[in-house]
Amino acid sequence: MNSKINAVKGMNDILPPESARWEWLEDKVRELMARHAYRMVRTPIVEPTALFVRGTGETTDIVEKEMYSFEDRLNGEQLTLRPENTPGVVRAAIEHNLTYDGGKRLYYMGQMFRHERPQRGRYRQFYQLGAEVLGFPGPEVDAELMVLAHQLLADLGLANVRVELNSLGVPAERRAHREALVAYFERHAALLDADAQRRLHTNPLRILDTKNPAMQEMVQAAPQLLDYLGEASLKHLHTVQKLLDACGVPWTVNARLVRGLDYYSHTVFEFITDELGAQGTLCGGGRYDGLFEILGGKPTPAVGWGMGIERVLELLVLQLGEFGAPAPDAYAIVPAAEALPLAMPALQALRAEGVKVQMHAGSGEGMGSMKSQFKKADGSGARYALVFGPDELAIGMVTVKALRDGTGAQVQRPLGGCADWADTLKA
């Protein structure tokens, strides 16, 4: 006997009724993006490894520890399953000269891959929703993207999500802050853990994001980047804050917010909940004006965010309760296989009018008893049962029986005129 094959650890099947929640969320996303004039972009799941080494950052955890990389056996090319999608979107924009006629507002939904220890809200294959605005330098698009994320969470019905933001300034300001940061951490080298010591001269900004309790007091007293920002960078940040205020989006400044990727500049932000434990960041992003040049393109301003779909769905269930696929409007009861040639065209006519209909299916000639079929109809959640019995079919009718109003009332409707009474079945 062959052994059972299971899914890869940390890569999960999404099955009914859970899949209905995903479809519902995706529909909400598409509606929102259409209202804000954002257009869908789809990029490959597999990209050249160099894209992420250069774009995400050679010293980031993603590149150092988490990427699924392999060599193409046909041509020896180094490839990687995408761990994030911003470099892929920028690569596509450069390759296809996407911003030649002006800026673009884009969004995507899809799988990302990171090789890390699976835990609640953190999987090896995970799904991310992202929005990217390419070609606009002003702080108004930073604010627009934050308002967009805030509106999406509101449309979904989520509450108790806070917005934290910071500014990383421009490269010269970050260099000055970096020098002060390295000097400070060198004075406190005895308190640095192994990870912080490794990052001290490669990516000291990431030490500020440490979760080590023993380092928190020392890190809190480290030099703040906000103190190194010039007039233009501070004006950019303050304009974002004013626009958020004008749009009713509450925010707080978190001077330790640095994000985990190398390409950010100016505004960075996160949408955070306290209800998901350690994986409480639902959405994070910021401005990345230098990424186009890093990837070989012309200087192009850009800003974007990514949102973890699994985390959003988990928070939805915590706050709003379980929900699944909407029940069908009607359940078709077919007592005998001989009725199918008449029943199925009638059901197709109803579906063409927008009625959601589930048909009972049996095995071969045995369709099951009327009692068992009514039990299935009741279990489906449908508001009506459509009975295609021999008596009904003999006179060209179908019986419509109410299942949810407590009356059990039933009427007969003509098989040949389904479009005329389809609206009576819709919720």
Describe the structure.
Helix 1 packs antiparallel against helix 5 and helix 5 runs parallel beside helix 9. This protein has 15 helices and 16 strands. The mean pLDDT is 92. The strands form 3 sheets. An 8-stranded mixed β-sheet has the order 1-5-6-11-10-9-7-8, with helices on both faces. It folds into 2 domains: 18-169 and 229-320, Bira Bifunctional Protein, Domain 2 (BirA Bifunctional Protein, domain 2); 330-425, Anticodon-binding domain (Rossmann fold, 3-Layer(aba) Sandwich). By secondary structure, the protein is an alpha+beta fold.
Topology summary:
Layout: H1 18-35, E1 39-40, E2 46-48, H2 49-55, H3 61-66, E3 68-71, E4 78-81, H4 86-95, E5 104-113, E6 125-134, H5 139-156, E7 162-167, H6 171-187, H7 194-199, H8 216-220, H9 231-246, E8 252-253, E9 265-272, E10 281-287, H10 291-294, E11 302-308, H11 309-320, E12 330-333, H12 340-352, E13 357-359, H13 370-380, E14 384-387, H14 390-394, E15 397-402, E16 410-414, H15 418-421
Parallel strand pairs: 1-5, 7-8, 12-13, 12-14
Antiparallel strand pairs: 2-4, 3-4, 5-6, 6-11, 7-9, 9-10, 10-11, 14-15, 15-16
Helix pairs in contact: 1-5, 5-9
